[in-house]
Amino acid sequence: MPPRRKLNEFERERAVAWFQDGVPKREVARRLQVSISVIVRLVQRFPATGRVQERRRPGRPKKTTPREDRLIERLALQTRTASSSIIRRQLRVATNTNISQQTIRNRLHEFSLRSRRPAVRPRFNPAHRPARRAFCRRHVRWTRQQWSQVLFSDESRFTLNHNDDRLRVWRRQGERCIDATVQEKVAFGGGSVMVWGAFSLHHRTPLFHVQGNLTGLRYRDEILRPLAVPTLQQMGPQAVYQDDNARPHRARVVNDFLQQSGVNRMEWPACSPDLNPIENLWDELDRKVRGNHPPPPPRDVQHLYQELQAEWQAEWQALPQRIFTTLVNSMRTRCVECQNSQGGYTHY
């Protein structure tokens, strides 16, 4: 919520003059861009006091001046990762003002700045942004019908036991380390499994468990030939296959096979998971499976996967159609947002 704007003396006099001229209070508030309650209190106070100045407020006065407040905001915006202690030290060097770290945080809160976890995104090299911008420029005018002909695919690695910072616990003071409020951490996430899947607006392939390293030959023989190509044939001659630039996907045997099979393949910019809607689908699938099962104890990864494999398949097939419709329809917005950021990051 933005900080409440205070009227200066000239604006208060103007507000009283407008009100005396018959301008409604709501219109006065709109002209000055303040809450109507500010104008109501002002016009109620003026007949009693005959002045527009605010009454002297009780309480402790601020230890910083408006100039120092603006400096605190500027220091935080110049270095977004600077802690309150660093900003406090920089302010003391610049103005010889010694205030607490909590005061620094209070001033930043007044400017609507909050400490948050940074968004995690791939690192771009100089070639990535132009490639992303070019891709979005080519596809930003695609219709929903055109996007409905794209089969989006990807692999995802599911860690069987991890803390994704979504877990919260209810606890009282002094209960931080009791068993009921501790999230146990298992080395390397307790193991992981990799699955492959693909979907379009009206089609979805079965999930495929990728065991071991995925090579170009395995990608062709175990995924493309039995799963992806038949689905593309069901979609019709206008179907387009999308996969990323992982090394197995761009192997020569894979390129030759797709060309011989007559598959239309979409050119995909590197480091662009935010443009691929299947990433959101993996997150939804992970939430559903974890919602049905507590984190498993450390055991054999293969045994755990066999226990969860049927449920992953069932949850994948049970994902409602509205999710697929929403994700496919979001492609135009993704392209617009990426193009507006000059090929930079999007919120997806």
Automatic annotation (TrEMBL):
Domain of life: Eukaryota
Taxonomic lineage from the root: Eukaryota, Metazoa, Spiralia, Lophotrochozoa, Mollusca
One BP annotation, GO: DNA integration
Domain Transposase Tc1-like: residue ranges: 69-140
PANTHER family according to UniProt: SI:DKEY-77F5.3 (PTHR23022:SF135), TRANSPOSABLE ELEMENT-RELATED (PTHR23022)
UniProt-recorded name of the protein: Transposase
Naturally occurring in which organism (per UniProt): Littorina saxatilis
Family annotation (Pfam families): DDE_3, HTH_Tnp_Tc3_2
Database matches in Gene3D superfamilies: Ribonuclease H-like superfamily/Ribonuclease H (3.30.420.10), Winged helix-like DNA-binding domain superfamily/Winged helix DNA-binding domain (1.10.10.10)
InterPro entries: Homeodomain-like_sf, RNaseH_sf, Tc1-like_DDE_dom, Transpos_IS630-like, Transposase_5, Transposase_Tc1-like, WH-like_DNA-bd_sf
Tc1-like transposase DDE domain: residues covered: 149-293
Molecular function via GO: DNA binding
